[in-house]
């Protein structure tokens, strides 16, 4: 993914839950920031008053809402309606798993929203912001479901996945007060997607939709560089890997996870950090457990 400097930098605001850092929003913020847009983040609240105050003061051109839970759709609709009633004219977009799969339903409930950014959002966001800045036809943005002026919904084709995850800037964590925490803990991602196909899970359909790889890996060097930055510059010593399945699938993934562990062990944070990851129990093997334990150098809890 090539990030070009924006011709017309915009004021952008991202709104969502912020448990465990909300890396989805923070990757979007970092990408928009790398293009020169000003970015900010606000925690979602059922009470629209705080958000209205912030939006009236900062006057963002774009507000992106992260809608993670389907059952929260009506609450997001109330908050976005309140923004509109307060006179907010910013472009309002929604993103996340549920809006990606059911964008028409979401736009029918959330009347104040202009668009849904579907599936992996970074590249679509950059194109959308470029259109909004130039005043060109944002409704034609690839990867977007758009509400047109006459109320009709326009469904654009989905864009291809970003091929190299290392090309995406690290999440923007500037406002997270790790330093004030008793035990500074950061969420981190080493990969995106999972090739397994568990009946109850939306991960595979989410990544399958864009016709790309079912699981993409960051390079171990990039993962460890981000961890070293968080350790040295932000005091983080506990890492929560948010990967859908850290060991999916087979020898390729185990080798990758082992390479991450070896790189950490050989670096200046080896033995100083602890970590947590999730995987299917049938992927565990004694050799990979042994290699991963070197990440913390202490113990392994399962
Ligand atoms: S292994 Fe986990 S992430 Fe992968 S499909 Fe199954 S439940 Fe989803």
Automatic annotation (TrEMBL):
One of its GO terms (molecular function) is metal ion binding. One of its GO terms (cellular component) is cytosol. It holds the Pfam family B12-binding. PROSITE patterns: B12_BINDING. It comes from the Bacteria. Signal peptide: none annotated. The keyword Iron applies. InterPro entries: BchE-like, Cobalamin-bd, Cobalamin-bd_sf, rSAM, rSAM_horseshoe, rSAM_sf. Residues 8-139 form the B12-binding domain. Its cofactor is [4Fe-4S] cluster. Keywords: Iron, Iron-sulfur, Metal-binding, S-adenosyl-L-methionine. This is B12-binding domain-containing protein. It comes from Sulfitobacter sediminilitoris. The lineage of its organism: Bacteria, Pseudomonadati, Pseudomonadota, Alphaproteobacteria, Rhodobacterales.
């Amino acid at each position: 993914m090539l990030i070009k400097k924006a011709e017309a930098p915009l004021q952008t605001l991202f709104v969502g839950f912020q448990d465990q850092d909300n890396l989805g929003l923070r990757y979007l913020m970092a990408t928009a920031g790398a293009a020169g847009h000003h970015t900010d983040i606000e925690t979602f609240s059922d009470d629209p008053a705080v958000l209205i105050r912030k939006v009236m003061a900062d006057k963002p051109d774009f507000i992106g809402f992260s809608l993670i839970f389907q059952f929260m759709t009506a609450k997001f609709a109330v908050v976005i309606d309140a923004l509109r009633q307060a006179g907010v004219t910013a472009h309002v977009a929604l993103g996340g798993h549920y809006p990606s799969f059911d964008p028409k339903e979401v736009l029918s409930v959330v009347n104040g929203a202009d668009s849904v950014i579907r599936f992996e959002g970074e590249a679509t966001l950059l194109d959308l912001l470029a259109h909004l800045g130039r005043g060109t036809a944002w409704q034609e943005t690839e990867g977007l479901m758009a509400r047109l002026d006459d109320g009709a919904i326009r469904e654009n084709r989905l864009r291809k996945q970003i091929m190299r995850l290392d090309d995406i800037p690290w999440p923007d964590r500037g406002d997270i007060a790790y330093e004030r925490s008793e035990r500074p803990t950061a969420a981190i991602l080493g990969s995106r997607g999972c090739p397994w196909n568990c009946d109850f899970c939306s991960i595979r359909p989410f990544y399958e939709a864009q016709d790309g790889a079912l699981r993409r890996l960051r390079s171990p060097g990039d993962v460890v560089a981000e961890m070293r930055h968080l350790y040295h510059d932000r005091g983080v010593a506990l890492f929560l890997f948010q990967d859908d399945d850290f060991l999916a699938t087979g020898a390729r993934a185990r080798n990758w996870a082992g390479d991450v562990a070896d790189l950490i062990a050989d670096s200046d944070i080896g033995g100083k950090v602890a970590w947590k990851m999730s995987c299917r129990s049938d992927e565990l093997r004694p050799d990979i457990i042994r290699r991963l334990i070197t990440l913390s150098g202490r113990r392994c809890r399962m």
